[in-house]
């Protein structure tokens, strides 16, 4: 009986490891710049249904769009290129220390 529980537990651990996702985050700034709630809404509504997008945060005051995504389903380059579909140009935003945002 112990062997059965051990094998079942081991199978669960292996299965959960195989399902681990590569979740990453990218922060970008847009051109034209966001200046109102409608700009934020336009970006959020567009990316809400894009494949692999997990979370979208926008900040008009910081001129930042932060997108959390599943790297197994999409890439940073695809996300940045997708902004052109809604007439924006996006560039990866650097953090305060002058380095690019962490993945």
Write the layout of secondary structure elements.
Elements: H1 2-18, E1 23-31, H2 37-47, E2 53-59, E3 64-70, H3 76-82, E4 89-92
Antiparallel strand pairs: 1-3, 1-4, 2-3
Report on the architecture of this protein.
By secondary structure, the protein is an alpha+beta fold. The chain is 34% helix and 26% strand. A hairpin with a 4-residue loop joins β2 and β3. The longest helix has 17 residues, at 2-18. It is elongated and about 65 Å long. It starts with a helix and ends in an 11-residue tail after the last strand. Residues 96-103 have low confidence and may be disordered.
The overall pLDDT, averaged over residues, is 84
* Class from helix and strand fractions: alpha+beta
* Proportion of helical residues: 25-40%
Characterize the overall form.
Answer: elongated
Strand order of the largest sheet: 2-3-1-4
**Unreliable segments of 5+ consecutive residues:** 96-103
Distance between the termini: 44 Å
How big is the Rg? 19 Å
Question: How many strands in all?
Answer: 4
Question: What order do the SSEs take from the amino end to the carboxyl end, as H and E?
Answer: HEHEEHE
